[in-house]
Every structure is written in structure tokens, then in C-alpha cells.
Amino acid sequence: MTVRRLADIQPDSFDFTPENRVWVDKQIRKYPEGRQASAVMALLRRAQQQHEGWVPKPAIEKIAEILGMPYIRVLEVATFYTMYNLAPVGKHFIQFCGTTPCVLRGADAIKAVLEARVGPMNAVSADGNFSWLEVECLGACCNAPMVQINDEYYEDLTAENFDKLLDDLAAGRPVQRGSQTGRRTSEPAGGLTSLTTWYGAQGNQHGFGTTPVPDNEDVRTAADRDPALDDALAARVGRDMPERHAEASGREAAADIGSNDTGRQRTGGEAPPAEADTGQGGLGGQRDVANARPEGSVAGTGTRTDDPVGVNQAESAAVHKPHPESAADRQESPPAPPADADRGQTGPGSPAAGPAASADKP
């Protein structure tokens, strides 16, 4: 790691604006009394935002005063973390990713544009609009090559579209963040090649979570028949069309009631015999296949444990509420022994019975 030093030219003083001072006080109140030093990184960040993208020495001193910290402690933080700029930067500060995935995808051409238009690394352009710094991986390797300009990512760059991007920024024109080639998030550059049933053939929001009707049933893939997908889509329909979902739920409830009535008539209101027990842990060890929950489902919710995150789980309380135990699922307890049953204290040979109780034995 290179040694990071403060800039030679520094402003005379620094203080937070009234609005930022209110924000600073709010950050400090997040921490217990005597632990206000925990806010140091947040305050350095706000000072950098206020002071044209870099942290001057007077700002470090001011933060140390506010937090009651030694100046050297705040300086240590500011010089250790590279996200704090210690010297003036351009209005549009460009962090250029020069690690392997971006290089393999043409980052050298992007670097050449920066050197030609802005100048060497850490230099500010003559108009004050740009400066740049080569950094380590920024985590957008799928859309390489890329740069971060201030707080935004710009991806899928070429020498041509990057040069145009800099022109637009310099002129104050609106620019497109993210992919510069029209790619949606990190999808394949040529469009979706999998999960098209789930995300839609075009991968757009309108197709999300819908199942297109196939022209030929034989061409449906195993993914199209995935039970988890079917459950998730059914749950989505239930949320989007509550009337239909309520009607279906009513029919299911009526069917359950009818099933329970039939069981009561068969047994006369008494517990079924052991050999008829359908509980998974009952004495009979049988399982009621017709009423068994689907493999991987969450009891009482219709939600599968392998559902995609966020699908059919809009109400966490409904998913995780305790499931009332049915009679078929309860373990049958052995009958309690009679009150006068021998418990080893009064039987023949026991201390309480005395010698006479065992006189007939050899």
C-alpha cells in the first residue's frame, strides 16, 4: 500500500455548514455516551462531500475536536482508507478499475482515453471537470470494463462510448448510469439464455413472474415444471387477484371440513385405533398420503422452503406462525397405570411387603 499524505496546499479553516452540523449531531447520538468516536468515518465522508470531494487538514482537526479524539487518531483513519481523498480532485472524480477482468475486456482502451483527455493519474484537468485514479476491483466484473464516477457506476465501456460519456458530463447533459450498451443489470449481453420462464422472454419487469403459454407442451423444460416455480406463481396470482384467491381458499377450507366430518363419523368421535393412525410419528407409523404436505413446504402456509426469496413470503408472520398440531400429527401417549398398580414398593419381595409376601418362593 502506498503512503498517503495530506496535500501541500491547505485551506485556512473548515467548519460544517449548519445543515451538516445537524446531521453530524444526529450521527453522534447513534452511539452510547463516551463512544462518539465511532462516528469518525461518517463525519469524514460528510466533510469530503462538503469540501469539493476531498478532506483537508482543517476538516480532520475539526472532526477530532467535535468527537473529543486526538488529532492523530482521526488522521490515521483518513490516511488508511483510500475512499477519502486527501488532495483536490475534479468535479467528476473517476475511479478506473484496472484489475484482470476489466483488462481482459478492454480496460486499456479506457485508460488511454483518460490519459489523452484528462492527463496523468491524480492530475486535475485544466477546466477542473475531471481527475482519475486507478483502483482495485469495484465488483462489477460481469459488465467490464467499467469506471466509478463520483458515486455512480458506468459499465460496458468502449473507447467510443466512454469518450461520449465524458463529453456529456463536461457539458452538463444528462447521462445514462450503469450499462452503456443497454444491458439490463448483469444479464447476458445477448439477452437471457436461461430462466426465461421466470423473468420473461425479454427479461423485463412486465414479464417478471409470468409463465408464457407454450406452443407445444412437449418443448417445456424441466425448469418449466418445477413445483417451486408453480407454487410461487400461484402465490403471485393470489396477491394480484385476491378475490380469486379467497374463493379458492374457501373451497379448500370446505373440503377440509368435509374430510374432518367424515373422520368423526367413522370413529364416533373417538380417537382412531393405532393401526389407523395416519400421523408421521404415531404408533402405526403410517402417513396419510392424501393429506400430507408437499415435500419442502412450510407447515400451514403453502410456502415451499425452496421458493425464491421474497416470493409468497410477503407476510413474514404468516409464514412463520406456529402451525396448530392436528390429531393425526400428535404422538399417542401410553395409558396411565392404575393408582393401585405395583410400582416396585409393595410387590412380593419388596421392603414394604415384608418376608411374608415372598414366603411361597424358595
From TrEMBL:
Where are the compositionally biased (Basic and acidic residues) regions?
217-228, 237-254, 322-332
Catalysed reaction, written as an equation: a quinone + NADH + 5 H(+)(in) = a quinol + NAD(+) + 4 H(+)(out)
Q: Which residues cross the membrane?
A: none
SUPFAM superfamilies recorded: Thioredoxin-like
Disordered: region residues: 173-362
The UniProt similarity line reads: Belongs to the complex I 24 kDa subunit family.
Q: This protein is called what?
A: NADH-quinone oxidoreductase subunit NuoE
